[in-house]
Amino acid sequence: MSTDAALSQALRLAYAGADYIRFTAQGEREVNNLGLIRNKMRKRGCNIPLIADIHFNANAAIAAASAVDKVRINPGNFAPSEELIHSRFTHFLKVCREHGTAVRIGVNHGSLSERIMREYGDSPAGMVASCMEFLEICRAEQFDNVVVSLKASNTMLMVKAVRLLAARMEETGMRFPLHLGVTEAGDAEDGRIKSAVGIGALLADGIGDTIRVSLSEEPENELPVAHALSDYISSRNAHPAIHANPAPGYNYLATERRISRAVGHIGGGQVPVILPIDGAGDAQLVSVTAANMLTDSFIRMLSDNPAAVVLLSSVHKNPVGEMRAAMHRLLGENCKVPVIFRLDYRETVAETLIVKASADAGALLADGFVDGLMLTNRGQAIDAAGSLPFGILQAARLRISHTEYIACPGCGRTLYDLQATLARVKAATAHLAGLKIAVMGCIVNGPGEMADADYGYVGAARGCISLYKGKKCVARNIPEAQAVESLLQLIRSDGRT
């Protein structure tokens, strides 16, 4: 509702390279003002599409259809009952058709409907079912101006859900574009790692048409990360062919961690190692490129040597693709040698290194292939063996080494200073390695996306916070000035400080 401030923010995003801009709109009053903001953008020569993000309020969605270029609705809270979904959604589509307005069906892991939760739980299958229900209505109404998204704060769950949705749409002859994002990724290095791990894994699969990097920072900070990620994966276009076959029995849509033999503290289902930090112990490290590992004789040698551990690298233009091919060859030959992936870079900008390494590792982690990581960088003054590999493994929930923060980027529903609060919470709890703490702007996605967090700090009303322990709300409407200390007291009462 702060028209000039919103216009200024939109223009900053445009200058930073956004292809479209989205504002949340709680009700019809906010929707009407979005129309005013859109008109002011056009008068300033900014023709970037403006999107309204709607939760709970179908009437606001219908009003937005005539005010903006696209409307995002959440199937989890679009209509209060199954009986009302069809009538409300078809009416909404009718108005969108009349005004040439696009639609995003945006499913969030944290806000699946009670009906979907009862049938599927908070699973990838439930997210897909929620989306497909609305897509089937779109198809019945012959409304094709639709983008779909499945988002979660858990990177691997998000990847599995989107892979499953892409396959389901393929089976049913649907060709709707896919929007990708890891929601509530947080800020700083961890927020960038989470986003690149999840989005990068899917882009490496050839999945994804639009992306949004969600950071608990100023929104224009998201754009350089998104562009670096998109440019990096796109740079592999027209790469030399990689000749490979999927391993028999490998299920891309329900991946599990590859079974490897244990060689000391490496492999055998143990926590992935990080070289050189963890060391190799008595293992015999066999350094090899993916292309060289595909021969029968080499694979026999690895199978016959119980002390061997492969340190696998690639110089291919598409290193992830070549490494995947090598891993499928090992699977197909039932060779259980542990594999540590060596990813090499030449970067001088820390953020670019974070994006590239996280995206590459994300695809391999999502496939279930990793027994360890080794990152090297030959750029200037960047330590690739520092916090980055630990952050990547933590983003995939494979190795927990520090406090994890699940934090939303903030929007018009956030009624407190989220960035400052997140900074205070991190300063007070950063020593609590292994804890997951959620800092959420509101209840729309808060309780759901932080379902596996140990503690949650969630906006309840203007200036008031509710605290959660796991999924249970344990304190409501705490004044904001007291809320961080109340969170710390809750953690102390459990003996976890």
Descriptive labels:
497 residues, alpha/beta, 16 helices
Strand content: 15-25%
Largest sheet: 7 strands, parallel
Contiguous runs where pLDDT drops below 50 for at least 5 residues: none
The proportion of residues forming helix, as a percent range, comes to 40-55%
Report how far apart the termini are: 41 Å
Number of strands: 17
Residue-averaged pLDDT, rounded? 92
The structural class is: alpha/beta
- Based on CA atoms alone, the radius of gyration comes out at 23 Å
Question: Briefly, what is this?
Answer:
The protein has 497 residues and is of the alpha/beta class. The chain has 16 helices and 17 strands.
What is this structure's SSE topology?
Layout: H1 3-16, E1 21-24, H2 28-43, E2 50-54, H3 58-64, E3 70-73, H4 82-99, E4 102-108, H5 114-120, H6 124-140, E5 146-151, H7 155-171, E6 178-180, H8 188-204, E7 210-211, H9 222-234, E8 273-275, E9 284-289, H10 296-304, E10 308-313, H11 319-332, E11 339-345, H12 350-366, E12 372-377, H13 387-395, E13 404-407, H14 418-429, E14 436-440, H15 446-449, E15 455-461, E16 464-469, E17 472-479, H16 480-493
Parallel strand pairs: 1-2, 2-3, 3-4, 4-5, 5-6, 6-7, 8-12, 9-10, 10-11, 11-12, 13-14, 14-15
Antiparallel strand pairs: 15-16, 16-17
3D structure, described in words:
The chain is α/β, with parallel strands linked by helices and 497 residues long. The protein has helices at residues 3-16, 28-43, 58-64, 82-99, 114-120, 124-140, 155-171, 188-204, 222-234, 296-304, 319-332, 350-366, 387-395, 418-429, 446-449, 480-493, and strands at 21-24, 50-54, 70-73, 102-108, 146-151, 178-180, 210-211, 273-275, 284-289, 308-313, 339-345, 372-377, 404-407, 436-440, 455-461, 464-469, 472-479. It is globular, with a radius of gyration of 23 Å.
